[in-house]
Every structure is written in C-alpha cells, then in structure tokens.
Amino acid sequence: MTAPVLTRPHGPAHTPQGRTALRRAARRVLLHNWTGTSTVPSHGLYPHQWSWDSAFVAIGLRHLSVRRAQRELETLTAAQWGDGRVPHIVFNRAVPLGAYFPSPDFWRSSTAGAAAGAPQEVETSGIVQPPVHALAAWLVHEADPAASRRRGFLPRLYPRLAAWHRYLADRRDLGGGGLAAVLHPWEPGMDNSPCWDGPLQRVEPVPASTFRRADLDHGAASDRPTDLDYGRYVRLAADYRDRGYRDGGPGGAHAFAVEDPGTNALFAASEHALARIAAEVGAAPGPHVRRAEALTDALVTRLWDAQTGVFRCRDLRADALVPEIGVGGLIPLLVPGLPADVVRALVRTAAGPHFGLGDTVRMAPSYDLAGHAFDPGRYWRGPAWFNVNWLLERGLRQHGYTDRADALRDAALDAAGGSGFAEYVDPYSGEARGTRDFSWTAALALDLLAAAPAPVLAAPTPEEDTA
Q: 0.90 exceeded by the pTM?
C-alpha cells in the first residue's frame, strides 16, 4: 500500500464551535449507551458490560457526572470473583442469550467458577482484561475529591482493586519472572492481533458448525476475526471453563500462555495509581510502589527488544519472544520510571516505519505497518484504536514529548468526530470501521477535549471585518 502524504487537517475540533459540537455528540453517545448501572460499549455488537471498556468510559464520564463514573467502576467490581479476578464481561440478564456469543450459558460462571469464588447473583465470563481500573478510579477521584470522599468511593473500591492486583501477581505469574500471563487472546484486549497467531497454532479449533457468531450480525466479516480464529477462541475458553477456571501450574500447562507488554504496562501504571489510592484511604502505599517498580524491571528484563526498539510478547510455552510487532509493545510508554533510553527508543519506533506516527499516519495502528499480516480494516490487525492512542498520548506527555502528544490528541479528536465515534479507524484514511457510537471513543474524546487548550480564534480577514 502506498502511504498518502500526511497533512494536518483543521477539523471541527480545532474551533470553539466544533469542540462544543463534538462534546455534545460524545455526551449523547454515553447517555444513549448508559443502562442505569453501567455503560455498554454499543447496544448491538456489545450489549453487556466489558471490563476495560468501563474503565475507559469512567475516565470520560468524570467530565459529565462524577457520580455516574463512580457507579461504572462500582458495578463492574461488584461482580469480582472470590479469588480477586475482575471478569472481562458482566452479563445483563435482560439481554437475550442469542444477542452475544459466547453467552452466559457458555461460560457458566456461577457453577464452573464456584471453586474460584464466582458470584452467584450475576453471570460473568471467566477470563479477564487489562488492569486499567485503578488508574481510572484515581482519575475519577481527582475530578472531584470532595464528592469522592463524601461518598467513600475510594475506601469502597480500594480493597477490590488490591485483591484484583494480588490475583494477577500471585495467580498469573506463570512464567515465574514477575509478569502476569494472559491465557486467552481476549484477555489482553487486542483480540485478533497477529501477535497471537503463533501461539494459537497449538490450539485445535472447534468446528465452526458448533457455534453461532452474533458479531457478524452487526459487522462486516472482512472486519472481524475469521471462523478459524473463533474456533480457537472457543476451544481455549471451553477448556479453561471445564478446568474450573483454574490458573495453577506453569505456563506450559496452558495451550495459550503469553506475557503481554500492554497488559503488564497497565498493571504497573495502575499499581502507581493504587499507591496514591492507598495513601488517600490511610493504607500503606509502599507495597504498591514496590510492585510497580518490580513490574517495570520485569518488563524490561523479559520483554524489551533493544534491537527493534519495542517490547514484544513472550510465548511461555516456547519461552521465546514473539516475532510480530504489535502496538501493545509501545504501551509501556505509560509507565512512570521507565528507563530514559527505553523511552527514547520507543518514541523513535512509534515514529519509524513500523508505526509511522506523525509521518505516514496520524494515529498509531494496532500492528506493524510493514508486517506480513497488516490489514488496515480487520479487527486489531492494523486499524487504529482510540483507547490505545489515548494511552500513547498520555505516555508521550508524561515523558515530556509535548508536541507529539498534542499532535496525537488532535488526530484522535479529528478521527473521533469524523468517524461518528467509530470503534476503530483505518490508520491511513481515517475511515470508520467496526461499530459506530462506541462508548470508549466518545468517553476518551471527552477526556482529550477537557485537557486540550482552547482554540485560538483567528483574526478576521479584511473581507470578514467589513462584512
């Protein structure tokens, strides 16, 4: 594919009127997707509550209603299992079983997960998603500390978040090197990334005739994972369920076990946030700071590839780094205290031929632009996602790359408004892909708008001045 010449558009987000319109449109999306207790990613394709979606939604909702942002996280963590895991889906009983697959009757959490402490009053999935929740909780608290303290928001959430982090540190360190492993491609959130192709080759897929994919009712097949991919996803989830959702044993005991840099970077960043929460509620912050530092050291030791300047996934079955370059390898930019030489290399990689950020594309793609499996439209195999770019914008700004962060913020706002708050976009053209009116796209647009300086009104031209 020939990359277009990159220009800096002056879209609606670059004028006061445009920003106001974008804010109102984002607000409408979040109001429409609110169920009364939480926010669905979208009513058609994703009609339940998703774990890391709710964290990103809460970050945006804090600019509309701190109370509702708190409720988002409280509802999610109320479905926490006894072993500490926060499930990746909390199912809404009012939604018909056929509206989403795998549905509650597939996961059977209250029975298959009973030994792991799955709740009995609500059905959930049995797998997890990246731990961005403590960071979200701290940002929600900061939006209105007085209201947060009045409601006891952080004292209520802190034990749940601490148990969630203990689960990851104790139950999921399958490689023994201090990082949390993921046991399913859905767990790192980047479901269909080419980074999983190699480890998935070991998984025998179930026949496509044994399940019905509800996602194809709402999206083009060319944008979605293939039936072969889904057959492997179903096999892994069913095997995990049939083992009672047990995590024990080394990584080699699981058909799919990977240390993902994005997941562990969010774990480290959220440990830093949890340290602040601990100090706020009168608990000891030190253990969280030490765990954050240990996670950062383990990230660099186990997953950093200095030759290519990116973090890679580690396949625990093969005990080897995965050769594919995914955008999860840039997310450690979010981690405070990352070594300066690693930060500089990551910024070079983000702007280089693998991701082209600020050169051939305005938002980072989800996979290597030069990779053999790159597809600008297929789910997590190339499109640009708003949550990932929000994380990168925050990381760039944290490490002092203000101009790059400003450019990425502007690009994300332009793409959010121009795509109708799409789930993801073609990284070259900005064309909307996936579903529209997607909650985290709207929520993170609100957050970026809140942090952006007000546009400067241009002086009128002579013609305008005399009109």
A: yes
